[in-house]
């Protein structure tokens, strides 16, 4: 099908009617927006609007009923002067230290091993690694409670075989955090391995071939090629896990209810405590402070792990 | 230089973008919806004079056996009110009620509610003062107090949960301790020492390890001693002789190794109860659920008696827990919901159906007692309890109900106080805080973080 209607000499081809062209151009300009409108509508309704509402809430003293009192920065100032808020951040920080570096180290080693094409049963090993990640956390936490029970848990029964005393894994301030960290590690290390594997597989093979031709050993290739080229993936993983650790809620909720004595009250759990008692203004302020802190931590991570090339 | 300029430019652009976003966000937020709803204190529910009850109501109850018990009442309610259809739903009320009341969506016509929540949720609830007026003089005073705010009633008082002292009759008999000799908490210490002498590995008095239940437990002792965390106006009064006495007594139990901490119904708790390590359980009446359902080896060996008194001749019980029924302001048919609750709570047919022998509890429901005095003064509603050696628990519980001193409205921040008082009580039970430190630290933190921000 053609739009040309006449090729006779001396006859000037009439341009398309301007109105029609303008309409089509407008249609072409608007069409993409039209197609994304449903998504945008949902995003604005369920993403942007709630966020702005929560922001407004954070400047009020609202308990879910009655008229909200505008209190300005009071909620933020209260939180910044509140030891419980800083303690929750410190708890999240401690959990971060106990989990993320370990995960990066273990995940990288596991990913390098699983990336070896000569290894047998790679698919099976990857499936096993991902199994904890896809298992519901609630079920796993229940297993943790039974396993780490001070008087009837399998771990203390095992230690008892060697004459070691019972440990209050979930009931003492010293051990509760590491026990929660262990659950987090078990649950999410498989995810870290998969991300790192993807990063490894994105490294071009000819880089290794060139290095081998130059006589670089496997260890040197790992140190000089693999790890530097994994920085971007590692940065992504660290950001993701930082978000997860600072938002951690279900683990302390299921295992310790934030105790003993608030020692496992994470930043995410602390904000829930305000919401649970209908102190919605303080809860919203807490969540925005958390957003700011996580963004700053993520930016610092990205800057620190930025590839030098 | 060019690189530096580019970097500067990038940062400037980022800064401008963030500023613009924040400014936009604040502007939109400022233009956002008014954060309010119609809820406000003071909406009283009354019945119109020409009221003809007909329509449909949705009633929320906590899931579980109690739900099934309430379910059995509906048929008889409909014999009295045939034109009222009751949709009875089992709901996780702790998780759903507050959100539903705040959002105003799918609000039930009536709901089961913990007494400790009445004050918090009262702005969303109908003021039932006028409807309760004819019954007021016949309701246990403590229940009227915990279901009220600023002198108005927001909850239809349901169950009363008096504190009792549960004990192992067989162990006491072996140790030569006569339970009737335990009239004060000093007597209880003495009895525990005697049991400990007989069995040095025992920790006779059960101490609660959970911070939330621990705080409830402490408040039972306080209520018995005639006080509570706050006075009628909501002012803190932890710094008192009564709290010093209670906490001092608990400290003695810990220091003399006469008690051990356990979390309610966890495996350690149950094992100690079954093997005779724990002998005395000062707790609310609803603890009888434990020997009736899970203490397989010692069922029948447990007994209940009145709590010991803090002073010679003092009150022999205090309340621990309890629940009410509430009618949300957004209810479609609040008047019909009132009729349902009036039948359930104040009509002999209603409360006999719940507490008396029924399909779910052939011997009757014995984990609490009604808070309506005519029900307490009548014939026993439930049978003697086999797990308590066929003891007549109704008689003891009714006696205990008369001993419960009047209470005060529960402050809305009560659950949050667990972070301070509940935790500090645990520290005392761990031996790392003294009674004075618990009082001082809890008072300071509750005042700063909860009362002042109320």
TrEMBL record, chain A:
SUPFAM superfamilies: MetI-like. Residues 1-20 are annotated as: Disordered. Keywords: Cell membrane, Membrane, Transmembrane, Transmembrane helix, Transport. It is a multi-pass membrane protein. It is found in: Cell membrane. One of its GO terms (cellular component) is plasma membrane. Pfam families: BPD_transp_1. One of its GO terms (biological process) is transmembrane transport. The chain crosses the membrane at residues 30-52, 94-115, 127-147, 284-305. This is Carbohydrate ABC transporter membrane protein 1 (CUT1 family).
Automatic annotation (TrEMBL), chain B:
InterPro entries: Bact_solute-bd_prot1, SBP. This is Carbohydrate ABC transporter substrate-binding protein (CUT1 family). Residues 1-29 form the signal peptide. Belongs to the bacterial solute-binding protein 1 family. The keyword Transport applies. Pfam families: SBP_bac_1. It is found in: Cell envelope. Keywords: Signal, Transport.
């Amino acid at each position: 099908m053609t739009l040309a209607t006449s090729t006779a000499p001396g006859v000037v081809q009439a341009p398309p009617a301007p109105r029609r062209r303008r309409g089509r151009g407008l249609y072409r300009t608007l069409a993409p927006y039209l197609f994304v409108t449903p998504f945008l509508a949902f995003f604005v309704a369920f993403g942007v609007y709630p966020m702005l509402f929560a922001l407004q809430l954070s400047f009020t003293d609202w308990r879910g009923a009655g008229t909200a009192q505008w209190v300005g920065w009071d909620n933020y100032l209260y939180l910044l002067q509140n030891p419980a808020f800083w303690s929750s951040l410190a708890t999240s920080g401690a959990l971060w230290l106990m989990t993320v570096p370990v995960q990066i180290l273990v995940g990288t080693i596991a990913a390098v091993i699983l990336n070896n094409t000569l290894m047998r049963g790679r698919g099976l090993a990857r499936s096993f690694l991902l199994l904890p990640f896809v298992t519901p956390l609630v079920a796993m936490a229940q297993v943790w409670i039974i396993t780490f029970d001070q008087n009837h848990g399998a771990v203390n029964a095992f230690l008892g075989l060697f004459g070691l005393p019972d440990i209050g894994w979930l009931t003492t301030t010293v051990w509760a955090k590491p026990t929660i960290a262990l659950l987090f590690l078990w649950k999410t290390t498989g995810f870290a391995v998969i991300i790192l594997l993807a990063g490894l597989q994105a490294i071009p093979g000819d880089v290794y071939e060139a290095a081998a031709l130059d006589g670089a050993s496997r260890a040197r290739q790992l140190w000089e090629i693999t790890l530097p080229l994994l920085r971007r993936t590692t940065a992504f993983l660290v950001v993701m896990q930082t978000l997860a650790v600072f938002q951690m809620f279900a683990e302390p909720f299921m295992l310790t209810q934030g105790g003993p004595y608030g020692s496992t009250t994470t930043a995410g759990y602390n904000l829930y405590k305000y919401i649970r008692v209908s102190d919605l203004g303080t809860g919203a302020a807490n969540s925005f402070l958390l957003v700011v802190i996580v963004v700053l931590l993520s930016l610092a991570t990205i800057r620190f792990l930025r590839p030098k090339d | 230089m060019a690189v530096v300029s580019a970097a500067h430019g990038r940062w400037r652009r980022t800064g401008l973008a963030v500023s613009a976003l924040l400014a936009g966000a604040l502007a939109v937020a400022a233009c956002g919806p008014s954060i309010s709803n119609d809820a406000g204190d003071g909406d009283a529910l009354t019945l119109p004079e020409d009221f003809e009850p007909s329509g449909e109501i949705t009633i929320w109850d906590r899931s579980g056996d109690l739900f099934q018990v309430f379910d059995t009442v509906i048929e008889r309610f409909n014999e009295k009110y045939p034109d009222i259809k009751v949709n009875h739903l089992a709901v996780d009320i702790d998780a759903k009620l507050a959100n539903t009341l705040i959002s105003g969506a799918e609000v039930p016509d009536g709901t089961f509610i913990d007494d400790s929540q009445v004050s918090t949720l009262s702005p969303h609830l109908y003021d039932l003062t006028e409807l309760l007026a004819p019954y007021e003089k016949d309701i246990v005073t403590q229940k009227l107090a915990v279901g009220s705010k600023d002198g108005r009633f927001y909850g239809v008082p349901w169950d009363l949960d008096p504190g009792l002292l549960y004990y192992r009759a067989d162990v006491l008999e072996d140790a030569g301790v006569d339970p009737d000799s335990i009239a004060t908490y000093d007597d209880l210490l003495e009895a525990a020492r005697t049991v400990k002498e007989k069995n040095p590995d025992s920790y006779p008095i059960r101490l609660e390890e959970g911070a939330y239940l621990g705080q409830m437990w402490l408040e039972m002792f306080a209520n018995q001693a005639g006080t509570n965390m706050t006075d009628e106006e909501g002012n803190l009064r932890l710094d008192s002789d009564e709290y010093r006495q209670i906490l001092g007594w608990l400290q003695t139990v810990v220091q003399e190794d006469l008690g051990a901490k356990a979390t309610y119904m966890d495996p350690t708790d149950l094992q100690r109860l079954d093997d005779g390590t724990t002998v005395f359980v000062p707790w609310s009446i609803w603890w009888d659920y434990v020997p009736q359902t899970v203490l397989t080896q010692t069922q029948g060996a447990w007994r209940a008696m009145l709590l010991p008194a803090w002073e010679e001749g003092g009150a022999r019980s205090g309340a621990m827990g309890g629940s009410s029924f509430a009618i949300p302001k957004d209810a479609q048919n609040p008047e019909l919901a009132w009729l349902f609750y009036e039948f359930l709570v104040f009509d002999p047919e209603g409360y006999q159906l719940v507490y008396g022998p029924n399909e779910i509890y052939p011997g009757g429901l014995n984990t609490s007692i009604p808070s309506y005095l005519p029900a307490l003064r009548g014939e026993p509603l439930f049978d003697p309890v086999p797990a308590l050696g066929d003891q007549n628990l109704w008689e003891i519980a009714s006696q205990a109900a008369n001993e419960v001193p009047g209470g005060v409205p529960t402050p809305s921040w009560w659950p949050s106080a667990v972070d301070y008082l509940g935790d500090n009580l645990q520290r005392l039970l761990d031996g790392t805080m003294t009674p004075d430190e618990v009082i001082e630290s809890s008072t300071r933190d509750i005042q700063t973080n909860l009362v002042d921000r109320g």
